[in-house]
DNA sequence: TCGATCATG
């Protein structure tokens, strides 16, 4: 604390300076806001929203639509009846950063007039009128408030990305809007119930009536204004889906980007990328380079090759430059190149390095996955190298297999990538394929809803009162088999009844923010008396890989794992890790501050080859679902040391994914007949027990099962008789 | 003997 004597004067000056800063900042914001392309059409936009219940806004990058439109609508009186303006984003960081920016522009602290809400974090209050949130969170809100009654306007931003949440949300909002306008006009909806005697399961799901929300008579709602914002040039899909809704176009502000193609097809993408990187480095003007690669392994090998080739350059440029070393190099060194990898599983302090400005005379080369396409915006990029490939996830609903395969990008993706070169000035994009090849690319990427397991979506929709999921008015219909299979597994889990309605258990499951198999496991565990342990298992199974094994320290990481490993399998191993981490944290917490204890926990993770980001996430999920099950009135009891009981409970929960050992040591999945191997990262990789349950089936070089535990086949007959019968 | 793109509640 400064002494009182010196204080009077300095406090005054600080006060004046702070006030001056505030005014200057406010003026600066006003100037910036006025200069945005969208500012020129403010009045027209507000009029359009007033005159149309649904509006499509196509806004190019840099138009300012995300930050400005909600402010225009607030000013235009759309919150006057007490309603609020909700804006959804596909990603959490976007929701947070945009909310902070808008709050600053309004000169208010976040959480008052302007706020945001994401999982684990609600920074809103009774005063909040402009609320940014993730699309997944709004879907969750709909479960508690099916008419989304507190919103007068909902803006779905980045709709062109077509995340699974956005697609479900669009269908839902269409229903909500219809129901709310009917509640005003007083039209009564006759909701017919069908009988389904003598029909097969498949026929029954076909014969259901379309379930839309019943207009509520007791309470009148204001009509819901719906705004769909997209960056794709083609607004037709959205407009048609919303019954020919009006679409308006808002100009963006981007610098021009020159596109270059190769003359002939490239056979070796890595080599072509390397040649291009050096060509840019040696022949082009200043500016950083962004290279799109498919995965961690490719990034690491390109990084290695760049440094190798740097060493082969003539004397004056022959320096291997990684960040902290550059200061020792002579400043007149002509060829200065720094490489920075970025991908999602990279520890965040290493990710942050890409944002440091390149030191004078140096050129940054950023080697990125598609994380740099939308999630992360790096300033200073003038050159983009795009080999035109991406690692994409696909899902086989028949077999329940996830695969990650390298495929070509879509035209929209290529455009998005090249746009990354034109944010700070005119740029250049080098596509490592021929122009004729570009013409043949698909216009846009396959929406996520066509590429993943739908049991969660189906469960959510049913919980929202939409029973006929097959005929639900999706903007793009998911594959029929994917829906049917999800319904089938929900039926086997007891979430859906024989007549295809949500059961009581199903309603309970829908309240829990985890995958249906996991929410069922929590309910089963409460009956077995091991919910305390299952909460931990589910939290640990819900996050990315907990173990971190860098190639150069394989032996060490293997030894670290040994201290947690259980001979019964990965589930008990994960439980051991969680307990060990929690014990370490609680002991630390007694003598240290929360912050210090968190920091020590991160150190503990590093020493034990555990991914601290994943563990943190698991601990967050754990506390959230613990709260949830307590609210639901489930008894949280522990089975203490009775691991047999816990394993029986695992069998009773995960019976849909079981496999039997074959004479050759491979495994045969009981339901699909698929032949798989236990993943080498599993503690059971060598032990090879007769019968296992597992949580994940992924196909890379082989079909592998991950998160595996040893069980007794007889348990399946006993605990899942609907699927398993005694063999003679 | 494996390497996982990106997200979300």
SSE topology sketch:
Elements: H1 7-35, H2 42-51, E1 54-59, H3 65-75, E2 84-89, H4 92-106, E3 114-118, E4 121-123, E5 130-134, H5 135-144, E6 151-156, H6 164-185, H7 201-206, E7 225-230, H8 236-241, E8 246-250, E9 257-260, H9 269-283, E10 288-292, H10 296-312, E11 337-342, H11 348-351, E12 363-368, E13 381-386, E14 389-396, E15 401-408, H12 411-419, E16 427-431, H13 435-440, H14 455-463, H15 480-492, H16 504-511, H17 516-528, H18 531-541, H19 554-562, H20 570-591, H21 594-607, H22 612-631, H23 643-653, E17 658-661, E18 667-669, E19 675-678, E20 691-699, E21 703-710, H24 713-719
Parallel strand pairs: 1-7, 1-8, 2-5, 2-6, 3-5, 6-7, 9-16, 10-12, 10-13, 11-12, 13-16, 15-20, 19-21
Antiparallel strand pairs: 3-4, 14-15, 17-18, 17-20, 18-19, 20-21
Helix pairs in contact: 3-4, 5-6, 14-15, 14-16, 16-17, 17-18, 17-23, 18-20, 18-22, 20-21
This protein binds one DNA strand of 9 nucleotides through helix 5 and strand 14.
Description of the structure:
The protein has 728 residues and is an alpha/beta fold. Helix content is 41%, strand content 16%. It contains 24 helices and 21 strands. It has an 8-stranded mixed sheet with strand order 4-3-5-2-6-7-1-8, with helices on both faces. A hairpin with a 5-residue loop joins strand 17 and strand 18 (667-669). Helix 3 crosses helix 4 (92-106). It is globular. Residues 1-15, 187-211 and 317-333 have low confidence and may be disordered. It binds one DNA strand of 9 nucleotides through residues 90-92, 118-120, 134-137, 139-140, 161, 163-165, 294-297, 343-345, 369-371, 373-375, 390-393, 404, 406, 448, 456, 460, 512-514, 544-545, 549, 551, 621, 624, 677, 679-681, 685, 698, 700-702, 704.
């Amino acid at each position: 604390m400064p002494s009182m004597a010196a204080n009077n004067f300095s406090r005054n000056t600080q006060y004046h300076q702070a006030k001056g800063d505030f005014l200057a900042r406010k003026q600066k914001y006003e100037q910036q806001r006025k200069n945005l392309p969208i500012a020129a059409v403010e009045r027209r936009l507000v009029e359009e929203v007033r005159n149309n219940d649904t509006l499509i806004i196509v806004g190019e990058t840099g138009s300012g639509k995300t930050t400005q439109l909600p402010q225009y609508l607030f000013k235009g009186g759309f919150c006057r009846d007490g309603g609020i303006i909700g804006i959804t984003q596909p990603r959490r960081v976007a929701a947070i950063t945009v909310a902070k920016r808008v709050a600053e522009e309004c000169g208010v602290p976040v959480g008052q007039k302007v706020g945001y809400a994401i999982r684990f974090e609600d920074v809103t209050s009774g005063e909040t009128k402009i609320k940014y949130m993730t699309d997944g969170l709004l879907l969750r809100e709909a479960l508690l408030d099916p008419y989304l009654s507190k919103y007068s306007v909902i803006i779905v931003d980045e709709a062109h990305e077509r995340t699974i949440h956005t697609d479900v949300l669009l269908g839902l909002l269409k229903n909500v809007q219809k129901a709310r306008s009917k509640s005003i006009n007083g039209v009564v909806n006759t909701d017919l119930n069908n009988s389904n005697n003598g029909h097969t399961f498949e026929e029954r799901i076909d014969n259901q009536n379309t379930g839309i929300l019943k207009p509520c008579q007791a309470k009148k709602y204001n009509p819901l204004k719906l705004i769909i914002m997209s960056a794709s040039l083609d607004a037709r899909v959205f407009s048609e889906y919303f019954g020919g809704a009006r679409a308006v176009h808002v100009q963006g502000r981007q610098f021009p980007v020159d596109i270059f193609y190769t003359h002939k097809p490239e056979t070796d993408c890595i080599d072509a990328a390397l040649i291009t990187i050096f060509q840019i480095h040696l022949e082009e003007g200043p500016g950083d380079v962004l290279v799109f690669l498919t995965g961690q392994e490719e990034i690491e090998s390109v990084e290695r090759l760049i440094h190798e080739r740097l060493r082969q350059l003539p004397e004056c440029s022959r320096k291997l430059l990684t960040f902290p070393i550059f200061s020792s190099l002579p400043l007149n060194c002509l060829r200065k190149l720094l490489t920075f990898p970025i991908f999602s599983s990279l520890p965040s302090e290493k990710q942050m390095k890409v944002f440091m400005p390149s030191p004078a005379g140096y050129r940054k080369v950023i080697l990125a996955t598609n994380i740099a396409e939308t999630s992360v915006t790096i300033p200073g990029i003038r050159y983009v190298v795009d080999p035109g490939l991406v690692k994409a996830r696909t899902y086989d609903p028949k077999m329940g297999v996830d695969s990650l395969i390298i495929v070509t990008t879509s035209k929209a993706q290529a455009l998005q990538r090249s746009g990354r070169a034109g944010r700070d000035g005119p740029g250049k994009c080098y596509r490592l394929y021929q122009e004729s090849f570009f013409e043949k690319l698909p216009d846009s990427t396959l929406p996520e809803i066509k590429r993943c397991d739908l049991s969660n979506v189906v469960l959510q929709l049913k919980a929202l009162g939409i029973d006929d999921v097959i005929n639900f008015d999706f903007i793009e219909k998911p594959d029929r088999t994917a829906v049917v299979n999800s319904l089938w597994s929900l039926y086997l889990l007891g979430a859906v009844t024989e007549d295809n309605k949500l059961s009581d258990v199903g309603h309970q499951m829908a309240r829990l923010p985890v995958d249906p198999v996991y929410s069922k496991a929590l309910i089963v565990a409460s009956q077995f008396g091991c919910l305390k342990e299952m909460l931990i298992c589910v939290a640990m199974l819900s996050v990315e890989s907990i173990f971190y094994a860098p190639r150069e320290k394989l032996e060490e990481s293997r030894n670290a794992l040994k201290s947690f490993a259980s001979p019964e399998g990965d589930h008990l191993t994960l439980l051991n890790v969680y307990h060990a981490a929690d014990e370490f944290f609680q002991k630390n917490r007694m003598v240290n501050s929360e912050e210090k204890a968190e920091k020590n926990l991160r150190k503990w993770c590093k020493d034990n080859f555990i991914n601290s980001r994943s563990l943190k996430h698991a601990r967050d999920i754990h506390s959230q679902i613990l709260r949830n099950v307590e609210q639901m009135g489930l008894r949280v009891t522990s089975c203490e040391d009775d691991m047999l009981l816990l394993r029986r409970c695992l069998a009773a929960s995960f019976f849909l994914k079981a496999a039997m050992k074959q004479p050759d040591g491979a495994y045969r999945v009981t339901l699909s007949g698929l032949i798989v191997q236990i993943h080498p990262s599993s503690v059971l990789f060598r032990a090879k027990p007769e019968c296992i349950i597992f949580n994940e089936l992924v196909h890379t070089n082989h079909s592998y099962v991950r998160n595996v535990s040893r069980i007794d086949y007889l348990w399946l007959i006993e605990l899942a008789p609907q699927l398993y019968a005694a063999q003679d």
